[in-house]
Specification:
With about 675 residues, the protein is α+β, with helices and mostly antiparallel strands. The protein has four domains: about 300 residues, 3-Layer(aba) Sandwich (Rossmann fold); about 80 residues, no CATH class; about 100 residues, 3-Layer(aba) Sandwich (Trna Endonuclease, Chain: A, domain 1); about 110 residues, Immunoglobulin-like (Sandwich). The protein is built from 13 helices and 38 strands. The strands form ten sheets. It has an eleven-stranded mixed beta sheet, with helices on both faces. A five-stranded mixed beta sheet has the order 23-24-25-26-27. It has a four-stranded antiparallel beta sheet with strand order 14-15-17-16. Helix 1 packs parallel to helix 2, helix 2 runs parallel beside helix 3 and helix 6 packs across helix 7. The longest helix has 20 residues. It is globular and about 95 Å long.
């Protein structure tokens, strides 16, 4: 699809209905084109069922999915959206392999990088979530489930919206004990839990009971019967009134609520020797629950056995708000089946996609943040490579080449085949990959000296005694922006401060508008700081991109083959008798990165330690990932080789050999530095 499309959205009719200022129904959305920018397909599998990773506003991503046949096709949705916490979420960035190198006694770090801003005017947050939940409902299959992860700030409002969108299909309010630390709470109880709301699309929904281990105190109740088997005596009474199960058995009075089972089933358990009869006729019959038959404690709605991500865990990505794989594994196993489609449109560090990949589910992931997309891509590349090395085959191929049935036919749920061993990265609505708006705003605030105000629903902060409004950097300042500003000031008759507007650029008509507005106005005068041209703040846009020096060439290689006279083998093959044949000549591509420099990284280091001229002994410390495409078409980057170091202290290799395609080709090398900036170098060979 090359043109935008209008997609219809059904009305929400649930009750109760939450109302807020500016609430708008969503009866249609516009679906913009999606541009394929990267593929990872190490086995060259031919399948349309690969993973999909989207970079863009999830409102646009969900609209695109609806326009491309995914309506009613998603089996499980998990989202961990912004919580309206009033905070900027950052990740701490460090150079690779530099833990032992310190500056002024401190580790050599690049400081903190904003990943997303969770600061909203209350009503805009509710509208934001309302629209996305309506779109998610359209994508959800009839037997599908949706899980919304939140904290105690807005959970009561989010549940009201969920009731309106998924009316009558509430399943559970899950309490996850995420920490044992009470933090800095002094005048209230410490908050140590998150809330996960579980709703389904309809009354019939996918569910597989999950279990967790019994605690030691419970197991101490175990007894040994005559044949040596351990069992726990459990009550036979029903927890709720069941008049139809109220009967006397062998002279023993029933529980006031009746028994758990019918008389026929009670007799069968008696014949099996599984009933324990008390000596006193007034006592209650008990049932022998053998330990070797127990799967564990049935999952309840309070989860205390899943800890947060350990700081030294292998899955740790340093991404803020990262959720543990064990938490997502429980949800994915409970609410979907192998081969199902799982969606997360606030994917963050990629945990949902990672777990879906490991558990044999198809997945779709999306995020507006460039760092999140890079982190998720890197994480999925590593998982897929590990699956390939372990001999995994995609689910479709497993079922085509075996006699097992579609219900897994004996394949363990613990290790289902992967749904696919590839994924593609798309950019929706031509979303700008070169600048993270949130971080750009933060840098502008720091540069100009703005004091951020997180309680104001319109203005971003103050500069001296002036109010400050930052116009989004994705468009120049227009008279419409100024008119909205004037309307806001008109609604604040007691506000006497002047205003500074910070923008990337401005339209020509802005100057005439400002001159007319400021001419006879004693208060609320408007001044503009245009970052693109302002002499004082112009350094904000003196960005020097990272650069790489490298050697890319074809190299002739010769391999000597041994031939078994009974059976021909490959290089180095062995046979009972063999002889050498003339060497075969082939070509390989040699890609060697000779040097790499990121002026932004160097500048950050010098900013933190102005008396120290930053010296980085190995350029690889600045590099996070190296990817190579041996047949680049100028549009889609097809990853033929991916160098993703396993640990933080590991470095990329820097020199690579790959099979050379026949004839001339364009080799592209993509280098991503530790701040997420991408460098693309191409060469014809």
């Amino acid at each position: 699809m090359t043109e935008q499309q209008t997609v219809q959205i059904a009305e929400a009719k649930g009750r109760p209905m939450l109302h807020w200022v500016g609430k708008r129904p969503l009866d249609h959305v516009t679906a913009y084109p999606a541009q394929l920018v990267e593929t990872f397909n190490p086995t060259a599998e031919e399948t349309a069922a690969q993973g999909l990773l989207f970079h863009g506003d999830n409102n646009d991503v969900l609209a695109w999915l609806l326009a491309h046949g995914y309506r009613g096709k998603v089996n499980l949705i998990y989202i961990d959206p912004p919580f309206d916490s009033g905070a900027d979420y950052v990740r701490r960035v460090e150079l690779r392999g530099m833990r032992r190198l310190k500056l002024d006694g401190e580790p050599q770090t690049l400081g903190e990088q904003i990943q997303y801003t969770d600061i909203w005017a209350n009503d805009s947050y509710l509208q934001f979530m309302y629209e996305r939940l309506l779109l998610l409902r359209e994508l959800l299959a009839e037997h599908g489930n949706v899980f919304l992860h939140c904290d105690d700030v807005k959970n009561f409002l989010l549940r009201s919206i969920l009731e309106e969108v998924f009316s009558g299909n509430f399943r559970n309010e899950i309490i996850w004990k995420r920490t044992t630390s009470t933090g800095l709470a002094q005048k209230r109880c410490g908050t140590i839990h998150d809330t996960i709301y579980w709703y389904s699309k309809s009354y019939e929904y996918t569910f597989s009971m999950q279990y967790h281990e019994y605690d030691e105190e419970y197991l101490k109740r175990a007894r040994e019967d005559e044949d040596g088997r351990l069992y726990i005596p459990i009550p036979t009474g029903n927890p709720g009134p069941r008049p139809n199960l109220y009967y006397e058995y062998k002279g023993f009075l029933p529980h006031p609520n009746g028994y758990k089972w019918t008389r026929e089933k009670m007799e069968r358990f008696d014949q099996q020797g599984r009933l324990i009869f008390p000596e006193d006729k007034t006592g209650r019959i008990q049932y022998k629950q053998y330990l070797d038959e127990m799967e564990g404690v049935k999952l309840q709605d309070i989860w205390t056995d899943v800890p947060a991500v350990n700081p030294v865990a292998h899955e740790r990505t340093a991404y803020p708000t990262q959720k543990p794989e064990a938490l997502l594994e429980r949800i994915v196993r409970m609410a979907s089946n192998p081969g199902d489609l799982v969606l997360d449109c606030f994917v963050g560090s990629g945990t949902t996609a990672a777990v879906a990949q490991k558990l044999g589910r198809h997945w779709i992931a999306a995020d507006i943040n460039k760092g999140a997309v890079q982190t998720t891509s890197k994480r999925l590349q590593t998982i897929i490579q590990e699956q390939i090395e372990a001999g995994a085959q995609p689910r479709q191929l497993v079922f085509q080449t075996s006699e097992v049935s579609e219900d897994l036919g004996g394949l363990a749920e613990d290790a289902p085949p992967p749904a696919a061993l590839s994924f593609s990265v798309y950019r929706v609505n031509d979303y700008d990959l070169q600048i993270q708006h949130n971080e750009a705003v933060n840098l502008a605030v720091e540069l100009v000296g703005i004091q951020r105000t997180k309680t104001d629903t319109f203005f971003d902060g103050t500069l001296g005694r002036r109010l400050v409004k930052i116009v989004p950097f994705n468009h120049p300042l227009t008279p419409l922006d100024l008119q909205l500003l004037q309307d806001e000031l008109s609604a604040r008759p007691d506000e006497g401060r002047d205003v500074t507007v910070v923008c990337l650029g401005k339209e020509i008509a802005v100057d005439a508008w400002l001159e007319e507005y400021n001419r006879h106005r004693p208060v609320n005068k408007i001044q503009v700081i245009e970052l693109r041209t302002d002499q004082k703040y112009g350094k904000f846009f003196l960005h020097q991109p990272a650069q790489a020096q490298m050697r890319i060439e074809r190299v002739q290689t010769s391999e000597v083959f041994e031939v078994d006279h009974a059976n021909k083998t490959g290089p180095g093959g062995k046979g009972s008798t063999s002889s050498k044949v003339p060497p075969e000549t082939s070509e390989v591509l040699v890609v060697e990165i000779e040097d790499f420099i990121s002026p932004t990284i160097v500048e950050r280091l010098e900013m933190d330690t102005p008396l120290f001229k930053a010296q980085i002994p190995d350029w690889r410390a600045m590099v996070d990932v190296v990817m190579i495409d041996t047949s680049y078409d100028g549009e889609v980057f097809d990853i033929a080789l991916s160098d993703v170091p396993e640990r933080k202290d590991d470095l990329v290799e820097g020199r690579y050999e790959l099979p050379a395609p026949d004839g001339e080709t364009v080799v592209a090398v993509k280098i991503i530095d530790m701040l997420g900036e991408e460098v693309l170098v191409t060469a014809e060979v």
